[in-house]
Amino acid sequence: MTADDGGFNLLDEPWIVVLTPHGDEKQVSVLEVFEKAPDLVTIGGEVPTQGFAITRLLLAFLHRAIDGPEDGDDWEELWRAGSLPMEEITTYAGRVRHRFDLFDATQPFFQVPGLRSAKDEVSGLEKIVADVPNGAPYFTTRSAASLERIEAAEAARWLVNTQAFDPSGIKTGAVDDPKAKGGKGYPIGPGWSGQIGGVLPEGRNLRETLLLNLIGREASDYVRIGGRDDVPPWERDVDGPTWDEDRPPAGAIDLYTWQTRRIRLVGDRRGVTGVVLANGDKIQPHNRNPVEPHTTWRHSEPQSKKFKQVVYMPRVHDPSRSVWRGLGAMLPSLSGRRTSGQEPRPSLAPGVLQWISDLVRRDSLPEDYPVRNRIVGVEYGPQSATFAEIVDDVLAMTAALINEESVELGRTAEGAVQDAENVAYAVWTLADNIAQAAGAERGSGAGDRPREALYAALETPYRRWLGELRSGTDAQQARTSWQLTVRDACWPIVNEVLESAGPAAWRGRTINSRLVNVSVAEAWFRASLRKHLALAFATDEETQ
């Protein structure tokens, strides 16, 4: 189907939102995004999850177009080229072109032709437009009229986003779906990308971002790319609606484009007015670490007992906790991927960061290369049936810190996080002790706000300090510098806590046979501070 026939082929039509170095947004086609990748910064969209999902789709396309890379040598040749291999990309595009038309009658992109319910119901666009909370449209800046029809380009972005991040909950009961009952498809869980805590390394431009995430086949001990069955849906035959219960993923390409839903857009290139949204391929998150490279993994003791084997689960992002506080789990030097012959590690680093570590160790990537780790994820509401919050953050570091051989550097970075955690707890304890001195019960919540205030005060300084760590960094000097920063940041918060104490807290009361008042609480805090920031206090003593 051509544009004249009402088609909308994503290989040629502009639909991907990209950011230029000048900060401008524009839309490009699939082929154009590959061609112009050296001159683009990143992929965006209406919500951050779109950029993550579309980037993974492009990675699947690129892997299949070049049938690789096979190993680090192949990757290094791509890296040094200065541009992406457009001849191979264009050739591959020609082979799969018929599968990229959004409105094709027999094989529409990322959809199922003929998908329908018994009553031919069509849902409104709020079912796929994630910035309109389903059932609560008053929590959006969109007008009702803007949801009556959206452009084909925007519909394509939401289509990809829905396959990756759609919440769980009841869906349309599609005809021929063996699990549908009473016209309803009962919950099978969120989209695959919604079940992980996305970690997507970004380079200095979009070309470098794609290549940093283009993992070679030689990395078979932590991710498999390729194989006969590891193909995207546009290379599979589609004869009609099909459902597959717990089909195991064949590899990373399969997961990048996992079809958690069966979808049919209602409309044409002039606009999309509705959608049929049904359940698709169910997938469970446990032990997908060999094939999913874009998330950190945690060892789950309960799941291990349940399945009678070592089980790792994706570590999802907590919107209430700054991403840098979980840095240790991300670094290959501290949370390596290779686990054979060992006790289960508490955490496994993302496979893509292990790949970058491998590139650094073989000198394919310089240690001072700046890597921006894009952190993307979703917190769902009750029963994972609605969007509660979208996580979007960036944690920048040099490739040296990612290198699994940089153990001392990794420990320095993680130790700095522990410094912050220790002092934050000391601040919490100070405020809590003062509250108890005034008559409150322990854990009354008096320390929560000061603790979070300290984390907020350390947010920018830690990110700046982390970005300055290099292969030649003096670890003790860097740690000392950080401890001085923490100490300086805590005192304005501590002084506010002390100044807000009332007369009753200054008089104090006996708790567990000890008098507790403001003076005692402050003395305890100072002792704790000296203990946890020993390097900072040692520096003071040396300069006296």
Automatic annotation (TrEMBL):
<dbReference type="InterPro" id="IPR013381">
    <property type="entry name" value="CRISPR-assoc_prot_Cse1"/>
</dbReference>
<dbReference type="Pfam" id="PF09481">
    <property type="entry name" value="CRISPR_Cse1"/>
</dbReference>
<feature type="region of interest" description="Disordered">
    <location>
        <begin position="281"/>
        <end position="303"/>
    </location>
</feature>
<protein>
    <submittedName>
        <fullName>Type I-E CRISPR-associated protein Cse1/CasA</fullName>
    </submittedName>
</protein>
